[in-house]
Amino acid sequence: MFMGFGGDIMLKDNVLKALNLQVNREFYSSYAYFSMALYFKDKGLKGLEKLMKKQAQEEIEHASGLVDYIYNRNSQVSLETVEAPHFSFSSAFEVFETALEHEKNITKSLSLALETAEVQRDYMTQSFLQGYIDEQVEEESFFSSFIKKCALIKEDQLSLIVFDNMLTE
Ligand code: FEO
Fold it and tell me: pTM for the whole thing?
């Protein structure tokens, strides 16, 4: 077992548990955003479909980053069942409201994991998670901006189609 900087590189149990939980949440995020992409696909809104598929892909990358980190800490990744998303939307506005709410929950979950690492004085994990939390500012702002745009469009279907076409470029 590698020992460095005077300590054991393996993660403490509760830190590992929090990181594995986050892996599952990132995979769920991907699944959730993919389901939102399917909502737009069903409506023929290819730009918004593409946008949400890209978000789904980014969430896989977040999960992969966590997996790599756990491995780099000589610890065991545990892949759990990913819950199926059960959303029902009546508008693009609702989709982005749901996505923003979800990202806020992800921020909370990352913050709890960071607190666990703080209690354990696991500075490497704190630093790692801080990068994820920093990115949440952009993640929340991204969906917030789409809520504002959809609020402007309201029920104007033609504007929604024009907006969607802009996203396909
Ligand atoms: Fe991986 Fe959008 O949080």
Answer: 0.91
